[in-house]
Amino acid sequence: MSNRLRWDRDGRDWPNREASRFVHAAGFEWHVQRLGQGPVVLLAHGTGAATHSWRGLAPILARDFTVIAPDLPGHGFTDTPPPPGLSLPGMARSLAALVRAMDVTPAIAVGHSAGAAVLARMSLDGMLTARALVAINGAMLPLTGIPGSLFSGIARVLVTVPMVPRFFARRARSRAVVERLIRDTGSHLDAAGLRQYARLMTDPGHVSGALAMMASWELKPLERDLPELRVPLTLIASEGDRTVPPGDSVRVAHMVPGAVVKMVPRLGHLAHEEDPQAIADLIREAAVRASVLA
Fold first, then answer.
1. What are φ and ψ of residue 115, in 5° steps?
2. Which of 10, 62, 121, 260 is deepest in the core (most CB within 10 A)?
3. Does residue 2 have a pLDDT over 50?
4. HSE toward the beta carbon, residue 193, CA cutoff 13 A
5. What phi, psi does 226 have (nearest 5°)?
C-alpha cells in the first residue's frame, strides 16, 4: 500500500540496519534482520512494534546466537497480508513459512507480548521445534469479562473505518502523545526509543496493520491448548508492566507443565528495551537450562 513505510526513506537510520534484508515468504515480502553466529534464536515482537524494539537486545544475543528478527506481517517494513493472515493461526503459519524460506532451525524462540502467543501457537501446531521458548511479558491469555469484549469489538469496528489509521497517525505527531502511550505501558524509554515508536505511530500503514491484527486476534483457543505445550517455557514478567499484568505469567505457568516464571523488578511492558542486558541474561539462562548453550 502506498502509505507504508519506505525503506529508502524511513529505513536510513533504522537500528541495526546493516543486518537488514528482505525475504519473500508466505506470498509477501518481509523485512528481517539477521546477525551473529551460533544456535539460532528467533525473535517475535509484539503488536504495534517492529524490529527496532530489539535494537539493544539483538546485538547482545548475537554474541552467542544467530539472531533472526522479522517485522511481523503488517508491521514496520513487512507487507500486510489479507485479513486471515493477521489472525493468530495465520500469523503463526506465515512466520513458519519465513523460517523455512530462510532455511534456519531455531534452537530457542523469544517472543514479546503478542509475539509470545505467535511462537506458542507455532509450537503447539508442530511448526516450531525450538528446544526452549521465552515469553517477555507474554500476552497469551484473553482479556476477561466486559473489557475483553469491548476491546475486540472496538478493534473490529475501527479497522473497517479507512480514516481511523490516518487519525491515529496524525495524533502521534505530538511527542506528548507518544510519550504518554509508552509511559502507560509502565516503561520509560530513551529519546532514541521514543523516536522509533513515533516513526511507526505516524505511519498510517503500520497503524492499519496493528489494528487489523488486533481485530483478528482470538486467544481463547490458545488458552485452551496451552496445557499441551511441551517445549520448556520461561516466562519473564515485569513487576511494573501496565499492559500485561505479571499475574498473567503466573497463570500461564500453572497451565504449562514445567514452566518457569522470572519476575523482573522496576521494569515495564517494554522491559527488553529498558534493560536489554538483564533480559539477555535471562534468555541465556533459559538456553543453558535447555542445553542450547553450555
1. -60, -30
2. 121
3. no
4. 21
5. -55, -35
Question: In which residue are the cell numbers 517475535 written?
Answer: 44
CB atoms within 10 A of CB 235: 25
Query: For residue 149, what is its C-alpha cell?
Result: 469484549
Q: Do 203 and 2 touch, CB atoms closer than 8 A? A: no
- Give the start-to-end residue ranges of the domains of the chain: 7-143+217-289
* Distance from C-alpha of 180 to C-alpha of 177, rounded to nearest angstrom: 5
CATH topology of domain 7-143+217-289: Rossmann fold (3.40.50)
Task: Report phi then psi at 232, rounded to 5.
Answer: -55, 125
Residue at grid coordinates 511441551:
230
pLDDT band, residue 145 (cuts 50/70/90): very low
Q: Which residues contact 278 (CB under 8 A, 6 or more apart)?
A: 264, 267, 271
On whether the pTM is more than 0.90, the answer is: yes
Full DSSP string of 197-239: HHHHHT-HHHHHHHHHHHHH---HHHHHHGGG--S-EEEEEET
Indicate the residue type of 47: T
